[in-house]
């Protein structure tokens, strides 16, 4: 919305007005037809009819209300989420059943264990590749870009929706370490976009773009909310991940939709007899009275800091893998040929390593992600007195027990293996997220620390008499939140964790660990989503770091491009042509005159192109040619009427071009007309096709056309592009760019255009001073400022210039009255 | 920050630059002095010294970091919060002790019960009145206004801090139904502002205004966070209550500081041996496995809806009381005379009604707020099988039991009485909030519904065999969150409730109830804070309602003021004078010429005033008079030199004024000079005081001065005031105004100024179409649009006008060369 605001507000406002007018006409038409219907059925029970029509009208007017839309969105997403979960559960069940049924033969078992995910992942990759390649990956980076106001093509279509939902179900059903959170944000946004389109059949309000953006923001919250049944965490996570500035006005929308969605999602589980009542997804049962001792806090802080490093490493690893595959030309070429080879290979490696009778036995390989998480959050201690064997394993926890190695080794192996596996798996070209795998790894790490603590202090730390043994499950909760927070650079994972586990007793450890993890990770690497944005080269604006003072000291004048391309109000088409040839900026500044440089507005590149093509385009060429031909014909007929046969013959000797009508239709560029020429006699020229011009005549005409002044009458001008002043600080510029989702802003000084700042310059300036190595580069011009003249002086000089201009402007005008005469022609 | 951005960015940028330059100079000076010190001490262990200096430098540079500031802020606030809680607890204890010790005589007991709060409240009211009247009330409305960019005087000073802390402690210690949340937001902001000032002694970064606003936003979160030990809820609540647009960049600041603060606040309780470990403030012990049945959800929804109405009623009642007191002139006059009478009266009424042996016995009058809340959130059922007597009351729960009436009557009485008491008490002129009283009332209402449900379904609702009795405490939690949410229009009370109780098991009921309560309350009344903002007439921007389509259909052109006051670049001082006289706008538009109307920038009113006073001010008058006098003297001396005694005599006969020097010093307005005149002879005029002008001469001079062109050289111009176009929708305008905290925006059409929209117009437009009665007024001009010309046409005409102007502009210029000549003088 804001991106559009400055870029083409004028256009947009007009379009919107036209739409509204149209829809109101349409509505009044339909009203009229309805009342006609009413008259027709007058014979019947008229009262009943009137009532029905009123109800219908009322319903249709109500459909425009936000809450109806949000309820529908929540409902649809809950159903999608539940349906997908159901399918995924069946897929995983089938995998287990196949593997379990073949326990007589290890080789067959291995084949079953490996083939199943390979087939599913290959299908998923192939399906999305064919139907909608946009569905690949998480979707959060794209949504962040879209919510910034950038239009990404094909990202919100029905095709993508189908590809994403089916692809994701298959990918998750394969049992690979992939998550559904990121894709769900995308799916929810798709749902919202499609629902908007559908609802716009009823009322015009759904065609409003700024409203759609608001709804997309709510949809992101719904996505996370119904994925984890975590409405609050969902809203917060989606805000942190997708927005830079958030309208509190939209807050309730997210909460409303996410709550409704989470409610329906959980109610479905109750109705399906999976659960007795609505509770958390991964319910924990830690003791309430004494969740942790104060002296355990250092351990939680250690988890936080370690998770910070781990999260940064994960992002780095993920990027490294993508870049390695891209830069290794031989690999790349090979993979490009056989597109499905990469997913097959990766799946093969990962599933081989997790094969339960093989290496998988040392890393609880046979557990699905959900099962691992449930066991990791268990409130019992696995390693009592350091001897793992004493623990009475039940259910899935059995998988963590191994006769030869103790539980610590299993946990360490699990963490290390899953770490690189997840980083690798998230690079697969299937719809997939990284949140859940990271969450599980974090939980395992937390459990490891917790078990170590429990082994170290078998009777707990508390010295006040009562024995409160250490709860390693609490550590797992803390670890999960911390690592997930570090990878995504969010604090709201803490809230998600509380909602997932249904317990908030560990709030302080979780908050401390998450904040520490964020502090460490943010200073080392961008978030996973920002990393993907950079890899995919989507437009972005880097965040300002933590407390970098330089931001307040760099000014727009240090980073702006002074050589602005502009057009003047009285420019000729030739100037326009030259400006358009010289670059491919999206918008051009319109100034009053080259001397005054007073900024009047900005015009889109496309608008100017159309202006130019109107002036020099085929229709005008044809018209000119036709006119010329008519004049020629007139002359000819004059000649033939008055002159003798010789005269007529002489005329037919003249070199003339006739262009066939069909040739004209085919050639897009009028200059090519002259290739399709035929010699012909003047007398043979029919009334309809008349193109009698010499080549040099056309050139002359073109030159004349180019020298004419541009007529901006039919051109859409944005009269208020965003303006900054030279002294605006980088910090403020960043704020304004991210607030309004700007792409560029003009720098003016008392109305005069003096420069332009685009996202690129801003990005450079920020990244130049926040380099990874810690060296803070100062922009070259910043140093000049300190010793420079005072700003009020410089402003005064600016004003003087303007002054002089005002005085002088009348002089050249007086000297060139021809110019103004030309204009009035 | 944003408010300032458009209003005086130029000024601000300059100030900032100057500040930075100054501070860097200062720093380099101090560095130099430090290195001088170093040289001096060279004789001693140089290495050690260097190390110390480096450490010092490092520390000072680190002090500028955000996190140090945030930790300090959190620490200070936790200490303040804990200290206040401690004092309040002692006060309440003393009250109880006095009351308990006098149980032999009811009259004495009554006197003790009543006098104590009256004295405390009177002291609190008097103290704040004398020290800092700004400390009165909640503080959240003011913080909302300040965060919008409006500068409120004296709101963030040390005096206010002292008044607020001491006043609040006394007010809460009196046992009146008042809360500490709102004032704590103010106290935290005060802390942050003072800390900023203190820290600015170390580094220049603390003088940056935009940073200070960021820190204030974090401080609001800390305020709520350390008040309830609810870091997440605190951050969210403060965002909802104070911001319209929130920078996600600032998010971590709030979380970091609030978490640290909450942590320290709870750690202090542990160290003080109040608690064994860090847990929630109002810990609940509801069962985890089956918190509620799905079929109980309608009851929760009912609580939500009823709370919505209740919340709206509370806000209405509160406003009614304030307005009643204000409008009733006799009461008002009486109260104004005896300022402390109102608090005394109110306290007397409330404490009389809660007197435990009197009416208080029917409404648990002897419980403090905290005790009531603890008992209300109890996980046991009070009314088993509808007979209250069977319940085994222990501890404070005893207070709810009455031999004659059952627990339902007690609860109803409690709710009704506390409702109006809280609404009344929050109008007292002491530092106080309304959150906690409302929270308690909500909890009581929830408990009432819960007890009714428990009486209705003694064996619970679940039909699956196992008996899960209904938990009325859960209803109390839901009711508390819902009513608090309804009064404050926030959803985050849900999160606060979870953090307060330490249990998240009722997340879905709470969310549903809070959202419903918000939906109902928001459609009936503004939030309590917005209501106070309106009562106090602070600048505000109403929120757009839920899904009002008209917002998308109203355009800026419908609401803008077309008669903009402006000044032109070549205007005379007379024009300036007239413009300044005609109104009291804060800023004026600067356009190129009255014909072109091209907007060049905006100038502050004060700037223009100073320009005018420079031109016509005393110093220039004096200078002129001095010049005149000198000329006169010269003439006189010429005359006396050349002429005879008669000539000299004739000259002395001339009427002259001499103004004494001291009279000049005293009179602020130079026109009054002429009152202090003396007849004097020319020969008697000394060199130093020379004021020899006729009155008509001065007037002539004034006229001449006024006809001169304004010299804008020393005037600070904001070169990029915010601009809108006529077709910008109301919705978008609202967004931009609240995003950037604008006060006004110019409406331009291709650079030409055509109107202005200020907060007032916007407010009118929004409130006009969202009237309480449900009648949606359409702005008078909106109807014209539908039948009007297409926008592209109108734009074209605009452009034509500009065109014509460009052509015609040279003509008048040519005809009036004198004007430009004048300019060059």
Automatic annotation (TrEMBL), chains A, B:
UniProt-recorded Gene Ontology molecular function terms: chloride channel activity
Keyword Transmembrane in record: yes
UniProt keywords, alphabetically: CBS domain, Chloride, Chloride channel, Ion channel, Ion transport, Membrane, Repeat, Transmembrane, Transmembrane helix, Transport
Region (Disordered): 783-825
Listed SUPFAM superfamilies: CBS-domain pair, Clc chloride channel
Keyword Ribonucleoprotein: no
Feature: compositional bias, Basic and acidic residues: 797-807
Chief location: membrane
UniProt topology in membrane: Multi-pass membrane protein
Any one annotated GO CC term: chloride channel complex
Subcellular location: Membrane
Domain of life the protein comes from: Eukaryota
Transmembrane segments: 67-89, 110-132, 184-203, 215-239, 251-271, 297-319, 340-359, 407-428, 435-457
Protein name in UniProt: Chloride channel 2c
UniProt organism field: Oryzias latipes (Japanese rice fish)
């Amino acid at each position: 919305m804001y991106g559009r605001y400055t870029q083409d507000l004028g256009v947009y406002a007009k379009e919107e007005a036209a739409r509204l007018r149209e829809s109101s006409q349409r509505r009044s038409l339909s009203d009229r037809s309805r009342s006609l219907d009413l008259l027709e059925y007058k014979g019947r029970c008229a009262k009943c009819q009137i009532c029905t029509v009123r109800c219908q009208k009322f319903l249709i007017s109500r459909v425009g209300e936000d809450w109806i839309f949000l309820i529908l969105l929540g409902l649809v997403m809950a159903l999608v989420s539940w349906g997908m979960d159901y399918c995924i559960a069946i897929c995983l069940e089938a995998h287990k059943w196949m593997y379990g049924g073949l326990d007589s033969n290890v080789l067959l078992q291995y084949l079953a264990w490996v083939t199943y995910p390979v087939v599913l992942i290959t299908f998923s990759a192939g399906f999305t590749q064919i139907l909608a390649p946009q569905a690949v990956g998480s979707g959060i980076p794209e949504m962040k870009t879209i919510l910034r106001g950038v239009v990404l093509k094909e990202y919100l279509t029905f095709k993508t929706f189908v590809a994403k939902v089916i692809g994701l179900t298959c990918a998750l059903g394969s049992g690979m370490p992939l998550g559904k959170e990121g894709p769900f944000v995308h799916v929810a946004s798709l749902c919202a976009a499609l629902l908007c389109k559908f609802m716009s059949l009823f009322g015009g309000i759904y065609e409003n773009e700024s409203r759609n953006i608001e709804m997309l923001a709510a949809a992101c919250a719904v996505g996370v909310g119904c994925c984890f049944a975590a409405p609050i965490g969902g809203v917060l996570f989606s805000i942190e991940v997708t927005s830079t500035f958030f309208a509190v006005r939209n807050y309730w929308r997210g909460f409303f939709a996410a709550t409704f969605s989470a409610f329906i999602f959980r109610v479905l589980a109750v109705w399906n007899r999976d659960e007795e009542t609505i509770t958390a997804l991964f319910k924990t049962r830690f003791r309430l009275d004494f969740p942790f001792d104060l002296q355990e806090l250092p351990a939680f802080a250690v988890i936080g800091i370690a998770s910070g490093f781990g999260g940064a490493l994960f992002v780095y690893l993920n990027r490294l893998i993508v870049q390695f595959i891209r830069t290794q030309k031989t690999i790349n070429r090979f993979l490009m040929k056989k597109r499905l080879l990469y997913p097959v290979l990766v799946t093969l490696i990962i599933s081989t390593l997790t094969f339960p009778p093989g290496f998988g036995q040392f890393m609880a390989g046979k557990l699905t992600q959900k099962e691992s998480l449930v066991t990791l959050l268990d409130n019992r201690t696995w390693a009592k007195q350091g001897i793992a064997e004493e623990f009475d394993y039940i259910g899935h926890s059995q998988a963590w027990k191994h006769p030869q190695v103790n539980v610590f080794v299993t946990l360490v192996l699990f963490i290390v293996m899953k770490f690189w596996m997840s980083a690798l798996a998230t690079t697969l070209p299937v719809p997939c997220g990284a949140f859940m795998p990271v969450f599980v790894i974090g939980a395992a790490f937390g459990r490891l620390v917790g078990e170590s603590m429990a082994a170290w202090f078998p009777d707990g730390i508390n010295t006040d008499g009562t024995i409160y043994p250490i709860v390693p499950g609490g550590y797992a909760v803390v670890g999960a939140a911390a690592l997930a927070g570090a990878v995504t650079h969010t604090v709201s994972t803490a809230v998600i964790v509380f909602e997932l586990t249904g317990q908030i007793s560990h709030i302080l450890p979780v908050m401390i660990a998450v904040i520490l993890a964020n502090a460490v990770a943010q200073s080392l690497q961008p978030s996973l989503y920002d990393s993907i944005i950079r890899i995919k080269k989507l437009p972005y604006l880097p965040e300002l770091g933590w407390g970098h003072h330089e931001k307040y000291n760099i000014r727009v004048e240090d980073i702006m491009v002074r050589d602005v391309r502009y057009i003047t109000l009285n420019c000729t088409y030739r100037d326009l042509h030259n400006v358009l040839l010289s670059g491919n900026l999206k918008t051009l500044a319109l100034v009053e005159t080259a001397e005054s440089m007073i900024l009047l507005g900005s015009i889109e590149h496309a608008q100017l192109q159309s202006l130019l093509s109107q002036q020099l385009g085929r229709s005008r060429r044809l018209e000119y040619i036709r006119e010329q031909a008519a004049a020629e014909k007139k002359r000819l007929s004059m000649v033939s009427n008055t002159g003798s046969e010789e005269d007529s013959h002489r005329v037919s000797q003249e070199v003339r071009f006739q262009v066939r009508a069909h040739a004209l239709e085919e050639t897009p560029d009028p200059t090519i007309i002259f290739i399709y020429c035929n010699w012909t006699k003047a007398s043979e020229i029919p009334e309809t096709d008349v193109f009698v011009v010499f080549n040099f005549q056309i050139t002359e005409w073109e030159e004349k056309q180019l020298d004419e002044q541009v007529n901006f009458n039919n051109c859409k001008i944005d009269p208020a592009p965003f303006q900054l002043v030279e002294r605006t600080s980088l910090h403020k510029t960043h704020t304004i760019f991210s607030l309004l989702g700007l792409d560029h802003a003009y720098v003016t000084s008392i109305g005069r255009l003096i420069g332009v700042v685009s996202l690129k310059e801003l990005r450079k300036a920020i990244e130049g001073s926040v380099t990874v190595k810690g060296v803070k580069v100062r922009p070259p011009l910043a140093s000049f400022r300190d010793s420079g003249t005072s700003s009020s002086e410089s402003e005064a000089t600016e004003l003087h210039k303007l002054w002089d201009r005002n005085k002088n402007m009348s002089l050249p005008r007086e000297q060139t009255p021809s110019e103004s005469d030309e204009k009035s022609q």
